[in-house]
Each structure stands twice: as structure tokens, then as C-alpha cells.
Amino acid sequence: QVQLVESGGGLVQAGGSLRLTCAASGSILSINFMGWYRLAPGKQRELVAGIRNGGSTSVADSVKGRFTISRDNAKNTMYLQMNGLKPEDTGVYYCKADNVERYGLKVYWGQGTQVTVSS
């Protein structure tokens, strides 16, 4: 079992910055992928950025150059640094972890944190 808790969301003006944090606990030694997903009003949930165990990262084209994903393995924490925020970045941001368990891969989600960018 893995527990994920996000924090760091809030209301910010366009052009501002926020840093999201996802703290993982439980059986985390087998997490092979963690990612940040965004659910915007009227849209489907989308992958914003992901990071694998080896450290390789990927970010969506819509946030490239503005968002940076990182992971502190010692603290079991993942971050999303969001700079140059735009109103279209508004949404609920969820942390996701893919954990390799005894009977296969299991996906865990956090409760989400709201990000609102005003114009």
C-alpha cells in the first residue's frame, strides 16, 4: 500500500509560480513511476509531468519550459515547480504512483490539490 498526499496548490496571478509537493509513504520501495496529472474544467485528466526511478523525466508540450518535475528519494517526495503560470493551467493536480506489488502493478492516486490561475 502506498499513500500519497499533495500540497502546495492555491490561487496565483498569471505569470506567478507555485510548487506542488507529493509526499509518499507506505511500501514505496517498488514505485517505478510517479507523475503529476491535471484535471481542468471540461477537459479530460492529462499527464503534466512524470519521473521514473532512474531519474528520466517527461513533461507535456503545454508546460515545457515552465514546469519542472523532480524527486527527492531520501524524503520520498516528488515536486512540481510551476513557473510562468497561465489561466489554462487551472485545475486539480493529482499525484500518481505506479507501484510494483506481489500480483502486479498497482496505481495509487493522491486526493488532489487545486491550482487556480487568475488573468
From the alpha carbons, calculate the radius of gyration and give it in angstroms.
14 Å
Helicity range of the residues?
A: under 10%
What kind of oligomer do you see?
single chain
E-strand count: 11
Mean pLDDT: 94
Q: What would you call the shape?
A: elongated
Number of helices: 0
Largest sheet: 7 strands, mixed
The parts where pLDDT drops under 50 for at least 5 residues are none
Structural classification? mainly beta
Ends distance: 40 Å
Order of helices and strands: EEEEEEEEEEE
- % residues in beta strands: over 45%
Which terms summarize this structure?
mainly beta; 7-stranded mixed beta sheet; 4-stranded antiparallel beta sheet; 11 strands; 0% helix; 61% strand; elongated
Short description:
It is built from no helices and 11 strands.
Describe the protein:
The chain has no helices and eleven strands. With 119 residues, it is mostly beta strands. The model has no long low-confidence stretch (mean pLDDT 94). It is elongated, with a radius of gyration of 14 Å. The chain starts with a strand and ends with a strand.
